[in-house]
Amino acid sequence: MRSVIGMPSPLKTRRLALVVLCGFAACKTSEAGPAEAAPQEISAATEPGVGTATNSAEHAPSVEHRGLAALTQEAVAAVQAQPRELFSLVPFGATSVIQAHPKVLYGIEGFSRAVAFVADQGDSSVPPALAAMATCGLEVAQVESITVAVDEHDDKEVVVRGPSFGDPDKWRCVATELGNAGKTPDFEIKQVAGTTVLHSDELRGRFVDDDTFVLFDRGWEDEVNARLEGKETKGVLDAPLADVIARVKTDEALWFAMILSPEQQGELKDSPMSTMTASWAALSVGDELAVTVAGLTPSDADAETARKTAVEQWESVKGMISMLGMPAALASKVEIKAAGDVVSVHLSATFDEVETMAAAIGRL
């Protein structure tokens, strides 16, 4: 997916990891990028897997680290009340979904500084685009949710839910502001068969309601339009990916779920996760930052084999953590488990440890 108004397109794993780390440490590192969001109830019914996060009292957010002055009860409620219809816009063919809640993330100390740093280090058109959006009343920090879906052909869809993001006049204003700043917008707002759409060379955008905007590759144009017009009844919650989504704690600030393609599985052939067929992860924030990544394997035996291999590899390298500038305490904070056909890796870290980790990654 090519960028519109200079916004970064598709997420890379390392960039996503870095922006998460930087977001909590205000670090000075190189690459990074934003992420995606979450409804709470979905239709696929499976038991929570090892990777399912909890909201127990031991994970209650601290005032100091979570920035609760900005993270209001209203913002939290918005996360927990995300409408199912946001998922209804995601086509049946999606093989991965990432969701984030910027309104919650921006309430976390250091996150806005990280985003500003990423914007400065990336495409030079990003800061002017963000400035134009802010001038026109499109505040990224007020976005309730962003959903990114990708299919096996690498076609992508982005659904944004936030105040006035579904107002085409706001996007016309952005185009005007970019022009005033000497930048040529790579999109236009036009009427097609009586419908207001956003057009660029490779992308299309639809204004669902006052606060919802969907942007998609042309490869998904027919399917997305059919869903918007009620002509297609099946979406991602009717697809195999729904079983993976159901394993994730979807009211966390950031999470992903994916089914691995044969090519992706092939890339794992020499790793402990060589038999993994699907993966999911969630980021939770309390007194510590906690990340759990889990994978589905064909059998209980495969999961146990993956666990043993991963533990062996971790034991052989964890002594080198301090040599890389990482906090030595992290060696005891990595948990590798198997439960049934699921293998998972869990890492928790204090905010001071995250800051040190981020700085070390930036030096690699």
Structure description:
The chain is an alpha+beta fold. It has one domain. It is 32% helix and 22% strand. It is built from 13 helices and twelve strands. The chain has a six-stranded antiparallel β-sheet. Helix 1 (13-25) packs across helix 6 (111-121) and helix 1 crosses helix 13 (351-363). The chain is globular and about 60 Å long. Mean pLDDT is 75; it is low at 1-83.
Rough shape? globular
Order of helices and strands: HHHHEHHHEEHEEEEHHEHEEHEEH
Radius of gyration: 20 Å
Mean pLDDT: 75
Strand arrangement, largest sheet? Answer: 1-8-9-10-12-11
How much helix is in the residues? 25-40%
Number of helical stretches of at least 4 residues: 13
Q: Would you count the extended β strands for me?
A: 12
The fraction of residues assigned to DSSP E strands is 15-25%
Enumerate the spans where pLDDT stays under 50 for 5 or more consecutive residues.
1-83
Distance, first to last CA: 28 Å
Topology:
Elements: H1 13-25, H2 63-66, H3 73-80, H4 85-88, E1 94-100, H5 102-105, H6 111-121, H7 126-135, E2 145-151, E3 156-161, H8 168-180, E4 188-192, E5 195-199, E6 203-209, E7 212-217, H9 221-228, H10 241-245, E8 254-259, H11 262-267, E9 278-285, E10 289-296, H12 300-317, E11 334-339, E12 342-349, H13 351-363
Antiparallel strand pairs: 1-8, 2-3, 3-7, 4-5, 5-6, 6-7, 8-9, 9-10, 10-12, 11-12
Helix pairs in contact: 1-6, 1-13, 7-8
